[in-house]
Amino acid sequence: MRIAIYRRISTEEQSDFSLSAQEAKCLAYIEEHQWTHIKTYTDEGISGAKESRPALDQLRYDAQNKRFDVILVHDLSRLARGMRIQENILHEFMNLKVRLIALKDGFDSANPQSMLMAQFMGIINQQYRDNLRWHTQKGLQEKAARGHWVGTVPWGYRALDKNTIVPDESAQYVRQIFSLYATGQYSLSELADHINGLQTRHCTRDFIRAVLSSRAYLGYVHCGKEYQGNHEAIVTEDVWQACQAIRNSRSGERRIMQKPKATIKGLIMSIVCCERCGAAMWQHVNSNMGKATPIYYYRCSGNSRRTCNAPLSRMTKVDQMVLDMLASFMLDDDQIQRVMDGLRHRQPTPQPALDHATIQARIDRLALAWSHGNLSDAVYTREVAKLKARFDEKPKQPQSIDIEKAASYLRNVPMLLNAVGLQEQRRIVQELLVKVVVYEGVIVRIKPTAAFAPLFPQQFDVVFGAGDETRTRNHLLGRQMRYHCATPAFDLLAPMMPEVAEFVKSE
Fold it and tell me: What domains can you pick out in the chain, each with its CATH number?
């Protein structure tokens, strides 16, 4: 018999159930029966109220692969401290024909009478967990009521012992955060940048918000409700109230000034990336310049996370570079023929529908899993309804590729870009390009889709703009524009745009 041992402990106070003690009892039992010990699975510091645990998940996986015959535990509470979790685990192992033995409880899944005892032990274990949680919470509240600190020590303090915290050297930065914010001259992001320039801890806007909202800096302890703490306050009540008044007023202003979702203006949105960090770039609107017309930029998403300091790129200039590049195509018949050949070889084939026997077999498997308690009623009903709806399903006929229309479209790319609107232009660009990489307002790298890679020369040397922009690009790169070919799959062109197809047909 191949034996696997599972052991678990959640707190150091459970000395009677230490990991070494659990394993020792299990090994002695294995030796007594002259079985073979395969492996020991250990979850340390994890509650039995969690159904997903690293070692337990691995145990389940190995049980499915038949790597052992018996699972040995010290008692059922090591396996789970909840009725539902215990039931799920026991039924799973029983369905896999894996025997489970709990030494202390005298449980053996090979004995049908043991299941009744498992029910009682599950109730006892869950009651123990609930009582322990209640007593722990009650003890923490009593500790907080006496003014002792409970929980993680906040920034600006250090722990002297389990009950006492005192201000440390970072308390001065906490005071600066409150005093500067109380002036009303700083935003959360500006405060984060200011504090990051003074010390090594990395502060984000959300961290500054959490500091400003924590009443621990007024000398209070929170555990269920608020208590007066014994620790020294870092900020005064007046400064605290001033900061909260500013936060409330700004929150009200944001609610009043909230606007509908901004319209996407960028031609290459969703495919534009930052050269400096590789992150996606988002649309940014600057409407505080005293001008009636807002100015749109591409902004690196790392700016808001304080992970990249790449400058904004003017949207109109970058979009015009893309249009100039695509409108400069001088496509000969050989280039178009190579693309068309690739599209012909990748014509989609019809996908057959599932036959009735296959669908019924899947429904039967769902019914079996539901009857064993491995599926909830809601999941079982939903999945069976989906399968029954497929009885009358007809084979899907994929939309074929109009090769001649695609060829006509390729020959007229420059004309189409000038004739259609922004939305159609964006769809054309995203069919031709996978990625556009921008650095300081200049395109430095493009990545075409695999189907249209033959349209792009090995070295693409197009002067975008003039004057300072061109010199900046040459200074930063010292080379011609690069490109990479997308390899995952061909982008199929013809079925994509009915508006463009009609335009080509009319021409």
Answer: 2-131 (3.40.50.1390), 157-256 (3.90.1750.20), 319-345+401-506 (no CATH), 356-389 (no CATH)
